[in-house]
Design goal:
Blueprint (H helix, E strand, L loop, with lengths): L1 H34 L6 H36 L1
Length: 78
């Protein structure tokens, strides 16, 4: 059972890192749009791509964390 708690902790930490990384990319995108208001640059598109991947990572890790906690509770009940 302790290995499952370790997995939950690892996924939770990665989920928190993903949220922080997406917030940093959002700040970078906001700064890039303020600097180049009327044009779309390659750097802006790259930041948007990385932001899209980071947000997907948040959803996947959040789902995995929820399922892991659910499985942990079911095992505890059994």
């Amino acid at each position: 059972m302790s290995y499952h708690n370790f997995i939950i902790l690892a996924v939770g930490l990665h989920w928190a890192y993903s949220i922080n990384h997406a917030a940093d990319l959002n700040d970078k995108h906001t700064n890039e749009r303020q600097n180049n208001f009327n044009s779309v640059t390659a750097k802006d598109l790259y930041i948007l791509e990385q932001k899209f991947l980071a947000e997907g990572d948040i959803y996947l890790n959040g789902t995995l964390l929820f399922v892991s906690i659910f499985i942990n509770r079911v095992i505890a009940l059994l």
